[in-house]
Amino acid sequence: MGRFSLVPIILTAFSIIFYGNIYIALCALSLSLQSALFLDGLINYFLLAEIFFATLSVYSIHRLIGLKKIKKNGLNERFIIIQKQQKLLLCFSIFAAAAALLFFFYLNFNTRLALILSALPSLGYIMPLLGNKRLRDIPYLKIFLIAAVWSFVTVFLPWLESGRAISGLLFLLILERATFVFAITIPFDIRDMEIEKNLGVNTIPSAIGIKKSLILSVSILTVWAISVFLIYPYIFALTMMVVFVISIFLVLGTAQQRPDYYYTAFLDGTLLLYGVLGSLSIIFGNL
Fold first, then answer.
1. 236-247, pLDDT tens digit by residue?
2. In a domain, 135, yes or no
3. Interval 168-187: pLDDT, tens
4. Global pTM?
5. Which residues contact 238 (CB under 8 A, 6 or more apart)?
6. Which of 29, 142, 186, 249 has the fewest CB atoms nearer than 10 Å to its CB?
7. By the 8 A CB rule, do 29 and 52 touch?
8. Dist CA 153 CA 125 (whole Å)
9. CA distances for 259 relative to 165, 212, 231, angstroms
10. Which of 199, 223, 72 is nearest to 142 (CA)?
11. Residue 268 counted as domain residue
């Protein structure tokens, strides 16, 4: 009788978490939690659930649609894994969309309206609304769109739900969050250079090269780190320097070819690290 091994089960579980988009949904949830704690210290669980399930649904649909496009040009390591999870992704997208719809009605009117507005570019990113083109297929737009949507969802929605009036602080917080997301998304464009080339989509790395793209990413991360000290309390800013150092290390690591888990687990993980460490620093800083 063969020996029982947990390794295949663990690998399958990690594959589902990372490529089933549960991980990226947790990243969105953690950043939203950090924003809510910073704004008023109150946690709206309905909003956090809405953001988690909406992110899970959107990313799952995106993977399914992206898989169909990539099949024409051959599948790489990442899409081979995604192909094996097509049925699971479909289930996730349907279940998560239903859950997001349920929690949608527990939010205040302004938040619901903002969610609808944020859904438009999100749908345009994954579905061909402009003829045969998605918004992500427009040259150089993808990375700006990702930064804008993530900052809108994880900063603006918690701000609205807190009932605060629009102020200059809101725009500073949105810009700070968008700066961080933009910086760590550049390496993903480096990873996807060949795929985007086959799809006829120009990106920043294809225009200026890998080395200059990495310099740009590190420079933007440095600007982000400075902005954190200008916006947040000192303890929070010091905590974020852990995220800064780790993010720089991971970004520079993409100068060499890396397995896809490097991007999906570690680079995306900087979003989760930001949200978790930021939330903890606020909680313990208020004790």
1. 999 999 999 999
2. yes
3. 999 999 999 999 999 999 99
4. 0.91
5. none
6. 249
7. yes
8. 15
9. 45, 22, 36
10. 199
11. yes
